[in-house]
Amino acid sequence: xxxxxxxxxxxxxxxxxxxxxxxxxxxxxxxxxxxxxxxxxxxxxxxxxxxxxxxxxxxxxxxxxxxxxxxxxxxxxxxxxxxxxxxxxxxxxxxxxxxxxxxxxxxxxxxxxxxxxxxxxxxxxxxxxxxxxxxxxxxxxxxxxxxxxxxxxxxxxxxxxxxxxxxxxxxxxxxxxxxxxxxxxxxxxxxxxxxxxxx
Length: 199
Description:
About 25% of the residues lie in helices and about 35% in strands. It is of the alpha+beta class.
């Protein structure tokens, strides 16, 4: 695997979260997976509850976003952040097993202030002062990449989502997460194919 930032995974299908929630056939995405992908709770807390193990963050890289706002594969919401930007990428491990990959985009000053311990999950970093946060899930996707298959030890595609954190109405970061099919052990099987949505 290359050192430094990894190019964002190739998106095979994506939809705004609101469209998924309003889909004609909610049975396509089983209830537990709907909660995991579309819920506004802490994914690191959910992963700990599901697996029974604390989430260990394995930092891949945190570096200047060279592509800026035009970076390939970057969620559109990143354009709402004030440059210069940093991008942070991590593996999330529970009990020695990789259960997710994540990347986040930050204004550089905001990252230096909020992420003083780069090995902490973002949720813990942002809530240490018990300040109120708002999470808005913006989109759901299926992504594919050989390096994800290698690390997850499973063929793709993989479910992904991206969301933003706000504090006092101000956007702090945009986060994308990709979940390992290993979670089917706790969440049940899920189809890994595009959902048919109402328009």
